[in-house]
TrEMBL record:
It comes from Vigna angularis var. angularis. It is a multi-pass membrane protein. This is Choline transporter-like protein. Belongs to the CTL (choline transporter-like) family. The keyword Transmembrane applies. Choline transporter.
Length: 72
């Protein structure tokens, strides 16, 4: 085989065909995984915010009872 010729068994643009396969299969999986992680993190954030709010309101109720009736 002379210099500069390509083998019929090897694709002419093997790097380009590999990049095409990468974008077609692997990047879709990465995007789906990122979407799942973002949903889980959002739910976790909401639950922690609710927990913090409920914890803060229960502390306020107990602290007002300990300080006695407020003058309104």
């Amino acid at each position: 085989m002379a210099h500069g010729e390509t083998s019929p068994e090897i694709p002419f643009l093997s790097v380009l065909s590999s990049m095409t396969r990468l974008m077609r299969y692997n990047l879709g999986s990465v995007a789906l995984g990122s979407l799942i992680v973002s949903f889980v993190e959002s739910i976790r954030f909401l639950l922690e915010a609710i927990q913090h709010k409920l914890k803060g309101s229960s502390e306020n109720v107990f602290s007002s009872e300990l300080n006695g009736p407020s003058n309104q």
